[in-house]
């Protein structure tokens, strides 16, 4: 092979200059110069040696990656690997392996393993996870660095390949025993007890924000919303600039009816950064639970635009679409959320609610059974399966059995209590329902449980206590419409004359609440027009 002429400037070859600029982070300069040199090389193949051309392709691809031109970067990385393959056949030059015999030239060559890792990063940004797995899987196990194994583990987990995921996490921990994220990825229960121990009063880690946030997330996944909120509150008090996890925190607050707190949280997050998905999701939750679904849809879509991997944003947008009657579009979003977070039950709950809303009971049953088998028989999966069984008269007894099992595991699990109460109401077993609800409320206070208890008390003519339960429910969530309706119904029954007068006034003036909803709908058109710009790509 004839030697290539040496492009030099100030005692350095031009390729060395490109490498120096890349090391200095001058990406735009690298892109321009490497692009020119590659064009010259294409017109005169003998201008650069094979190893120099390989370096130019890698540095050019790196600059494209920095500019977020991922498809173009993948193309150039592929060309670089092809050039490296040809180089290996015609030359003995190899990347440095720590061997003393390595030549100075070989030490300058970019690592082929690093090139493949960058390609995998490009594929993940393009949502081509299968291609990312394929490129990393092609790297021999002994040559995989900890970050390669970590990426593989996360990709396997996202794809639902739990066994391969755990194997890769173990490999990360073999190389880096203190890789805490790998421990979390392997075993949530182990991580839970480790965090609980670390946060004990005498522990030096008791005020660690990351540990508190992780514990809050674990409580959330376990369906323990009260403790999750408590830990998120502690975390944000310690770090007022905290953003991570605040979308989940905002969602939980909104579910509790604490809309003023949600609004304040959204404002605080926007003051920190409007370039993260979290503040948009929190504001979207405020809109959703205020029944302003088009605005919630817009805010969820904006969050997805900022972070396409935001599970909470996908759930928000999916829920808004479902409540607006756009069920098929909602299903797409819930499926994407499941792809990103296959271990999060709320993603499956959203999809199943869509199936039930469209009377696709068979699809809902298949999905609920799959979740039950995949995530195991716990109070949450048992309740989810029971929820679907309640929709079919043929499977009512099965629903009862499942709910009894769920409540045996967790007597205070609110969703199971609500569904069991629904079943007892159908059977008109009001006394049993009252006993169930009183037992559930012995150690917790929840708006929905108090309201349902009020309904049951009305059924057995215990009107005064029913009124008390509705009052407690409204004190917990002033926006709970069903509690308000229950209370108003009782007031009308107690004073029929006043009720008739009120109806006359309503006929003449119209309902103020209805007017608010009309205003909401007219405003919704504005958000609906903008929503098309922020849909999923």
From TrEMBL:
One biological process term in Gene Ontology: protein ubiquitination
UniProt-listed PROSITE patterns: TPR
SMART domains in the record: TPR
Keyword Cell division attributed: yes
Alphabetical UniProt keywords: Acetylation, Cell cycle, Cell division, Cytoplasm, Cytoskeleton, Mitosis, Nucleus, Repeat, TPR repeat, Ubl conjugation pathway
Pathway linked to the protein: Protein modification; protein ubiquitination
Biased segments, Acidic residues type: 500-521
Main subcellular localisation: cytoplasm
Subcellular location, record wording: Cytoplasm, Cytoskeleton, Spindle; Nucleus
InterPro entries (alphabetical): TPR-like_helical_dom_sf, TPR_rpt
Basic and acidic residues composition-biased segments: 485-495
Region feature (Disordered): 485-537
TPR repeats: 311-344, 447-480
Subunit structure: V-shaped homodimer. The mammalian APC/C is composed at least of 14 distinct subunits ANAPC1, ANAPC2, CDC27/APC3, ANAPC4, ANAPC5, CDC16/APC6, ANAPC7, CDC23/APC8, ANAPC10, ANAPC11, CDC26/APC12, ANAPC13, ANAPC15 and ANAPC16 that assemble into a complex of at least 19 chains with a combined molecular mass of around 1.2 MDa; APC/C interacts with FZR1 and FBXO5.
Family statement drawn from the similarity comment of this UniProt entry: Belongs to the APC7 family.
Function of the protein: Component of the anaphase promoting complex/cyclosome (APC/C), a cell cycle-regulated E3 ubiquitin ligase that controls progression through mitosis and the G1 phase of the cell cycle. The APC/C complex acts by mediating ubiquitination and subsequent degradation of target proteins: it mainly mediates the formation of 'Lys-11'-linked polyubiquitin chains and, to a lower extent, the formation of 'Lys-48'- and 'Lys-63'-linked polyubiquitin chains. The APC/C complex catalyzes assembly of branched 'Lys-11'-/'Lys-48'-linked branched ubiquitin chains on target proteins.
Name of protein: Anaphase-promoting complex subunit 7
Organism of provenance: Circaetus pectoralis
């Amino acid at each position: 092979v004839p030697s290539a002429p040496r492009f030099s400037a100030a005692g350095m070859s031009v390729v060395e200059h490109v490498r120096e600029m890349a090391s200095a982070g001058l990406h735009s300069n690298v892109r321009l110069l490497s692009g020119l040199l590659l064009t010259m090389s294409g017109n005169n193949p003998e201008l650069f040696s094979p190893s120099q051309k390989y370096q130019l392709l890698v540095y050019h691809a790196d600059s494209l990656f920095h500019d977020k031109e991922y498809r173009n970067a993948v193309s150039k990385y592929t060309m670089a690997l092809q050039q490296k393959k040809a180089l290996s056949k015609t030359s003995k030059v190899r990347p440095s392996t720590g061997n003393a015999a390595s030549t100075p030239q070989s030490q300058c060559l970019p690592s082929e393993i690093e090139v493949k890792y960058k390609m995998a990063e490009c594929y993940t940004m393009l949502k081509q996870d299968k291609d990312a797995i394929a490129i990393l899987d092609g790297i021999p196990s002994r040559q995989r660095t900890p970050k390669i194994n970590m990426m593989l583990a996360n990709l396997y987990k996202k794809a639902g390949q739990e066994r391969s995921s755990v194997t890769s996490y173990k490999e990360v921990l073999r190389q880096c025993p203190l890789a805490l994220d790998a421990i979390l990825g392997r075993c949530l229960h182990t991580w839970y007890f480790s965090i609980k121990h670390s946060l004990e009063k005498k522990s030096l880690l008791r005020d660690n924000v990351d540990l508190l946030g992780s514990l809050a997330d674990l409580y959330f996944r376990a369906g323990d919303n009260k403790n999750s909120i408590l830990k998120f509150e502690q975390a944000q008090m310690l770090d007022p600039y905290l953003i991570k996890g605040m979308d989940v925190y905002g969602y939980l607050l909104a579910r509790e009816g604490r809309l003023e707190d949600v609004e304040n949280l959204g404002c605080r997050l926007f003051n920190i950064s409007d370039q993260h998905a979290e503040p948009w999701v929190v504001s979207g939750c405020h809109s959703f639970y205020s029944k302003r679904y088009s605005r919630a849809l817009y805010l969820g879509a904006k969050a997805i635009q900022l972070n396409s991997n935001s599970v909470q944003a996908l759930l928000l947008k999916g829920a808004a679409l479902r409540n607006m009657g756009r069920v098929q579009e909602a299903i797409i979003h819930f499926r994407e959320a499941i792809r990103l977070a296959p271990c999060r039950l709320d993603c499956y709950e959203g999809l199943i609610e869509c199936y039930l809303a469209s009377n696709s009971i068979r699809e809902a049953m298949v999905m609920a059974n799959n979740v039950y088998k995949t995530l195991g028989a716990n109070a949450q999966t048992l309740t989810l399966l029971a929820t679907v069984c309640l929709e079919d008269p043929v499977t009512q007894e099965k629903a009862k059995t499942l709910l009894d099992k769920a409540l045996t595991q967790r007597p205070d699990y609110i969703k199971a209590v609500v569904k069991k109460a629904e079943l007892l109401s159908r059977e008109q077993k009001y006394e049993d329902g009252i006993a169930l609800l009183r037992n559930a409320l012995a150690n917790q206070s929840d708006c929905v449980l108090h309201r349902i208890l009020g309904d049951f008390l009305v059924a057995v003519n215990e009107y005064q206590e029913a009124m008390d339960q509705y009052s407690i429910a409204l004190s917990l969530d002033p926006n709970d419409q069903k509690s308000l309706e229950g209370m108003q119904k009782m007031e009308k029954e107690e004073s029929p004359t006043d009720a008739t007068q009120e109806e006359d006034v309503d006929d003449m003036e119209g309902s103020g609440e209805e007017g608010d909803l009309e205003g909401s709908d007219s405003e919704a058109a504005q958000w609906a027009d903008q929503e098309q710009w922020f849909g999923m790509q």
